[in-house]
Amino acid sequence: MCSFIESVTSAFQSCTCGLVHHEINMKKVVISNETVYGEMAVFIKEQRFRKTVLVCDENTLKSAGNKVRDTLESSGISVSLSQIFPNDHGDVAADEQSLIQTLLETPKDTDVLVAVGSGTLHDIVRFASHQRRIPFVSFPTAASVDGFTSAGAPLIVKGEKKTIQCTAPIALFTDINVLKEAPSELAAAGFGDMLGKITSLADWRVSRWMADEPYCPTGAALTKEALENCLSHLEDIAARSEKGLTVLLESLIISGLVMLVLDHSRPASGGEHHLSHYWEMDLLKKDAPQLLHGAKVGVASSLLTSIYKRLIEEMNNDQELSDPVKNKRYQQHKKEIAQTYGELPNERQMQEWLAKVGGPSTIQELGITQDLLEEALQHAHTIRDRWTGLKMKNQLRLTPQQ
Ligand SMILES: [Zn+2]
Ligand SMILES: [Zn+2]
User: Fold this and answer.
1) Taking a C-beta distance cutoff of 8 angstroms, is the pair 124, 84 a contact?
2) Among 26, 32, 63, 74, which is least packed by CB within 10 angstroms?
3) How many Å lie between the centroid of ligand 2 and the Cα of residue 220?
């Protein structure tokens, strides 16, 4: 087992929260340079895999796929290619067409799938791997999302987004030079997905008091540490330096591993993901081009910091929640809740961080209208039965801002 996975595993081993900590079945995580292709071939041979299917799109075939294929083939491993076609908007989507294409292009005697791409390609492969009961190896081509090492696959089924629990990769390899050459908005989106942990972690803490949600302090601490590591390497991430992209990808991987161990996405996904999901559903309904997941999450988290801080003002005004059961808990834990929201950075700071790495920092820059934002603020909390500050805001019926 590599030291990276070992340190996450050992952190959970000493956790006394009483929750089930699932074992990480990943064998290897290698973030390196040119040598990574050879290391990946050695790993695949060690596992006695002979037949692979490499799943990629047109861009990722060029950026890394060809090299992966050539190296595996020259090591005597058979590689067949499944190049996913883009939709009418030119996007690769994890929808029925792509899922069926991958399944059709995966021969019955395939030993392992290799995902070469960013988040969506991984979701397609995660599903195919789960359906076929064969493992997959992850090769991220951009530090764009925290889902590489988790098991949940957000899929688009009949135009609706559904997250299906599938499977995590058995190993992850990537070439830092490929990450450097990826479009800059992808790393900015990865940073946005990490910045979202600011509100998801606050939501998780509060959900303990408001909804008895299971809470693992180790999972929270590891996710927080990964977030803080990104914030302390902001300059490096903004410059897309080797150090910056390594820190960013490692942080995204850790966030994914925490979800894997806890078998839920609570540490990494709160109200900001619900807003992002709502916007995504709206774009799907309108058949409009999709926005990057992390770009939406970063902006949503930034907006929520000021909304959550306003909740403290309402607490001081002796407001009550509309649900009497929740109100009782709210009255009991007001102090801790106010402290949690009080510790959040302010919206301006969040926007500065997002702008620094070159991502959108406002809904205008993201391309979301004020009307859609208002609608999402009212309804996104109903997407999941999960306690968030967004739910609290709706139960408190905040007065319009002066
Ligand atoms: Zn996310
Ligand atoms: Zn724990």
Assistant:
1) yes
2) 74
3) 9
